[in-house]
Amino acid sequence: MELSKNFEPQITDNKWYNHWLDKNYFKSTPDNREAYTIVMPPPNVTGVLHMGHCLNNTIQDILIRRARMKGYNTCWVPGTDHASIATEAKVVGMLRERGITKSSLSREEFLSYAWEWKEKYGGIILQQLKKLGCSLDWDRTSFTMDKEYYDSVIKVFVDLHKKGIIYRGKRMINWDVKALTALSDEEVIRKETKQKLYHLKYKLENSDEPIIIATVRPETIMGDAAICVHPNDERYKNLHGKFAFVPLINRRIPIIADEYVSMDFGTGALKVTPAHDVNDYALGQKHNLETIDIFNDNGTLSEAAQIYIGQDRFEVRKKIAVELEEKGFLLKTEEYTSEVGYSERTDVVVEPRLSLQWWLSMKDIATPALKVVMEEEIKFYPPKFKNVYRHWMENIKDWCISRQLWWGHRIPAWYDEEGNYVVAENEKEAIQEFSKKYGKSNLTIKQDEDCLDTWFSSWLWPFEVFKGYSNPNNDEINYYYPTNTLVTGPDIIFFWVARMIMAGLEYKKQIPFKEVYFTGTVRDKLGRKMSKSLGNSPDLLGLIDQYGADATRFGIMIASPAGNDILFDETALEQGRNFNNKIWNALKLIKMWEPRQSDTYQEENQFAINWFENRLDEVSKDVDNMMQQFRLSESLKTIYSLIWDDFCSWYLEWIKPGFENPINSSTYKKTVTFFTELMQLIHPFMPFVSEEIYHHLEKRNDDLCIKQLSNSKPFDSFTLSTGQLLKNTISGIRDVRNKQQLKPKETIQLFIQTDNENTYKSIESILSKQLNTSSINFTKENIAGSFTTIIDRDKFYVVTEKPIDSTNQKAELEKELNHLKGFLISVEKKLSNEKFVQNAKPEVLAIEQKKKADAESKIKTINDSLELLN
RNA sequence: GGGAGCUUAGCUCAGUUGGUUUAGAGCAUCUGCCUUACAAGCAGAGGGUCACAGGUUCGACUCCUGUAGCUCCCA
How far is the CA of A805 from the C1' of B44 (A)? Predict the structure, then answer.
């Protein structure tokens, strides 16, 4: 069969993916093998594949594929998250395009649109993962709003409420004025924001002098309940207990003292607005201040503000500043940068607000979840994230779990007309509860309008995808849980990782996973985060089309150490594509030999075969170790170099028969075996090209995808060091040839001066072939008229037909000599230091002595050569 | 403001209990090659006082302290 010039992923990728699916290789059912399980972090159902997913899922696929080849029963579960805020926003947007507003719809109508949208556009990302080659068990695809999953979420809510862990309370929350919902603290992103600090004059009662306060939010003055100063602040001591008037509306407010105020910020006097600031709220509670909420849900001013009613908060800020200035209340403004909270989903400035919400008390369930990580029952890679985790868990606050949205799990609480409520799984049970709790029957009750935070469902993911809560102790949950490895970004360590650990311990009494691998953030070449506004997110599917899935996987994996950010650079994909091509060409070379096998014994191949076999064993062992420590980039680099350098550049050149000459048949067979093993090693990283080559190498009845890796064998270090000597010698003499500007076809005579003639004899035939020598001889003396070079500890003389150009030789030898002399001095200094000789370990001492001896003998050799030149 | 981490060749990174030649790799650069698998290639080469300043030690890229710069997390 004619092989194409280059590897063609466009043809190959789909072919093999479909073949693997047909063969059900990704499908898992419990059996007597050990399980290796990963649950995929479910992307938003609205999501499309971006670099973060690509990195994350490539890593998971590498782990899963390698485990599959190591004999585990691997199960990788796909799925999507309903992502309440994000999805609801998309649906609202879609409706707006059709001229429908959410408020004109009933809940049921809205939800039917939402489901319609989900069926039509949801889960595109899962199809895209197939392009990447992800070996997911598709029959297990889960969604956080699947019927059973939904019911489990509700049951968990009811259970936690019964245990007193979930409660209802009026507290300060983060309000998203665009999505019109509460947010948890974790959904608020703090960003440095340039603002203006307004210095405002408040009139004092019975005084002509005003008191000056500084604020970045002049639009909230109508909600002021007090002015607060530090009790020790001399400037204001006479004002404690006095009153001032809010500008424009002239409301009378007290001046209070509290140590909370910092004397050196602004003027040292703080306006207290309990309804619109978390700290002010606490202050208000402490001092019994009035809470005046001057905002509507959507961030416009309410009746309570008295002025600017119905206008947006930021519009009002501009207008009120002008009015304050005109009326003489504004003393000055200055530039001021501080952190402002923005909604993670809608990017609007979050409004702190007092609100009645559902809360989850975290303290008790956090304690065991902290313990399992600190004691490494769950291991974090890299371990630095343990600290981050501990810090958050030790300072954990209650979790606001209600959201004022329709798309999601509806809170299972029912209210009667008097505002009494019960929590129950459904309306029927709620009615029963009412009669039990309040002795009431035949009443009309209404279910809570709100939904639960998305993370309140995804924290059940590791067990509920196996129906571990809805159908406890089923065969699958017992087999697959706890899962093995969670691969995720550090940005959701609190949102998700911590809460899964809590839920796992609460409901399965077991950790949800044994290891967590935190990936880095993918950034662009300049180190900036990928973002829509910067337009620096590459089109992934475009890249896969252009370079192929293997090259894309290679490109993203080659420079991504665990926990460090990845600077994405398209040249890495080129490198991947070139690597594909290199492998492909090695295949072409070997296929050329296939019909040209003979039985003639080729002595020179024995060393090459023996060496490569050992090298393969050595690298297999290294890769095993690295994979266990999740050093994936390093593993890939190591295999890359094994294939490109050791196999292609050295081994294949060493055994390559002359032009149109036959190849020894056993050499050929060995080579096919080596190539197969190499494809096996690279397969988890680059599944398509390796599977394709596997089938080209020989006619096969099985597939590489499930071919089992053999256990690593011991290797012989003498053979490996001889191989290294051979490589060094070839490189060294090639350098001489280069410098003498010898054409490849011009032969040389090589003389070797060494104590290890036998070693060189075992590699003599390869040396001869690689260096195009007419003869190789051993000598005890200098060879006149030669070019001399020292490689490792031996001396080589190159004799050519052209006269030797020795002009550079002298300079080079002298350079080497100087280096060695300097080196020798440092070694001698060490050895003449008595304390070193006394304290250093014997091995270290021996090494230093050997260094000294080597350096001395080399110096002597160089001096001899220099003498000859003079 | 508190905490964590980073700083090694032009770029991206290794460097595993302090001593295996006065530091390694890939990419990029330079030189020579269209050699009968591969120019998306082959063969070579150059390039670093390991951020800075102290300290511990016989010995520091590696341990300690401080300084500067960058990143992240929390308030």
Answer: 18
pLDDT band of residue A559 (cuts 50, 70, 90) is confident
User: Residue A185 CB closer than 7 angstroms to strand B?
Assistant: yes
CA-closest candidate to residue A5, choices A584, A580, A829: A584
What's the rounded Cα separation, in Å, for the pair A466 and A474? 8
Q: Closest nucleotide to A551's CA, by C1' atom?
A: B40
Q: Which residue is nearest to nucleotide B45 (CA to C1')?
A: A735
Q: Which two three-digit tokens encode residue A18? A: 């479909």
- Please check whether strand B approaches the CB of A400 to within 7 Å: no
Tokens at A56, concatenated: 């994350």
Q: Residue A129 carries which side chain, given as an amino acid letter?
A: L
- Nucleotide in closest CA–C1' contact with A735: B44
Q: Which CA distances in Å does A263 have to A234, A278, A315, A817?
A: 10, 19, 31, 70
Q: Which of residues 740-779 of A touch strand B (CB under 7 A)?
A: 741, 744
What does DSSP say about strands A794-799 and A748-753: parallel, antiparallel, or unpaired?
A: antiparallel
pLDDT digits (tens, 9 = 90+) for A686-715: 999 999 999 999 999 999 999 999 887 888
User: Rounded to whole angstroms, how far apart are CA atoms A271 and A265?
Assistant: 12
A625 touches strand B (CB under 7 A): no
Using the structure, give the distance in angstroms from the CA atom of A664 to the C1' atom of B11, rounded to a whole number.
45
Local confidence band at A406 (pLDDT 50, 70, 90 cut-offs) = very high
Evaluated on CA atoms A608, A613, A614, A615, the torsion sign reads: positive
Collapsing DSSP to helix, strand or coil, A799 comes out as strand
Q: For residues A400 and A182, is the Cβ–Cβ distance under 8 A?
A: yes
CB neighbours (10 Å) of residue A52? 21
Name the least confident of A196-210, A228-242, A488-502, A818-832: A818-832
Name the closest residue (CA) to the C1' of nucleotide B43. A734
Question: What is the per-residue pLDDT across A606-625, written as a single tens digit (0 to 9) for each?
Answer: 999 999 999 999 999 999 98
What span, in angstroms and rounded, lies between the C-alpha atoms of A698 and A336?
Answer: 71
CA atom of A792 to C1′ atom of B54, Å: 40
pTM for this entry: 0.90
- Residue A3, nucleotide of least CA–C1' distance: B37
Sign of CA dihedral A151, A152, A153, A157: positive
Answer yes or no: are the C-beta atoms of A152 and A412 closer than 8 Å: no
**pLDDT range class, residue A452, cuts 50, 70, 90:** very high
**Residue A846 has which token pair?**
């021996």
Higher-confidence position of A845 and A352: A352
- Tokens describing residue A664: 């020894």
A839 Cβ nearer than 7 Å to chain B strand:
yes
Nucleotide showing the shortest C1' distance to residue A741 CA:
B32
Q: How far is CA A52 from the centre of its chain?
A: 7
CA-based angle A240:A245:A248, to the nearest 5? 155
Provide the positions of strand B that have an atom within 7 A of a protein CB: 2-5, 12-14, 19-22, 25-28, 31-33, 35-38, 40-45, 57-59, 71-75
Q: Which amino acid is at A357?
A: Q
Q: Could you please report the per-residue DSSP string of A503-569?
A: HHHHHTSS-SEEEEEE---EE-TTSPBP-TTTT----HHHHHHHH-HHHHHHHHHTT--TTS-EE--
Distance A50 CA to B30 C1' (A): 38
Residue A532 has a pLDDT of 65
Q: Of A317, A313, A276, nearest to A175 (Cα)?
A: A276
What is the model's pLDDT at position A562?
66
